[in-house]
Specification:
This protein has helices at residues 2-19, 173-178, 184-191, 195-205, and strands at residues 67-72, 86-92, 97-102, 108-114, 117-122, 128-133, 138-141, 147-151, 157-163, 171-172. Strand 5 and strand 6 form a beta hairpin. By secondary structure, the protein is of the alpha+beta class. It folds into 2 domains: 42-167, Jelly Rolls (Sandwich); 176-205, no CATH class. It contains 4 helices and 10 strands, in the order αββββββββββααα. Residues 1-18 form the signal peptide.
Length: 209
């Protein structure tokens, strides 16, 4: 009887150890699927896979929105692959804005480290939640909801944002509508904007049609 119990315990311990996988460093030489990247062979994993040094420098904010996001997602930081986490740096120059956008793949936590940021989101019931955040303030944005960040001071603002996904995705509403070849007549019917407004926004954002 004791031999059987001992055998079963050994089998349980062996099975538990066999099922444990500490990490799945992304193999960036292959495609990224819905479940992330395939795992690198353990023998090829190094400490550099778990270290990202790209968030110490400001992003380039010389663009139409005067904002820059420096991501440390699985595509840039293979160590987060499969872990359900990632991080990024947000830089907002004076007058900068990250327009209404969503992250289909994850919720977001924003921590302000410099300046003032007006941030907010819109619930699926169309309730609006927004506030001016200062250094040390934290705000959350639930997965999939439209949200935005605007520089609310006269100096550059910086924040770090973390996500509940190694690849949260991004869709900026204005770019989705006006920066592609979606026919203007369809944009007009689905947004209630007139033709002149649609053509003007497409000209600004590089859209056609």
């Amino acid at each position: 009887m004791y031999h059987i119990i001992f055998f079963l315990l050994q089998l349980l311990i062996f099975s538990s150890h066999a099922a444990v996988q500490d990490f799945c460093v992304g193999d960036l030489t292959g495609p990224e699927g819905p479940a992330g990247y395939s795992c690198k062979k353990p023998a090829t994993v190094t400490v550099d896979d778990f270290v990202f040094s790209g968030l110490g420098m400001p992003g380039n904010t010389t663009n139409i929105i005067k904002a820059a996001v420096t991501p440390a997602f699985s595509a840039q930081f293979p160590g987060v692959n499969g872990l359900g986490i990632s991080i990024a740096r947000l830089d907002l120059a004076a007058g900068g804005v990250v327009p209404l956008h969503t992250h289909p793949g994850g919720s977001e936590v924003l921590v302000v480290v410099q300046g003032y940021i007006l941030a907010g989101f819109i619930s699926s019931a169309n309730s609006v939640y927004y506030k001016i955040l200062k250094k040390g303030d934290v705000m959350i944005f639930p997965q999939g909801l439209l949200h935005f960040q605007i520089n609310a001071g006269g100096i550059p603002a910086v924040a770090f944002v973390s996500f509940s996904s190694p690849s949260p995705g991004l869709q900026i509403t204005a770019f989705a509508l006006f920066a592609n070849n979606l026919p203007s007549v369809l944009v007009e019917k689905t947004t209630f904007l007139d033709d002149a407004q649609v053509k003007k926004l497409k000209a600004v954002l590089g859209g056609t049609g």
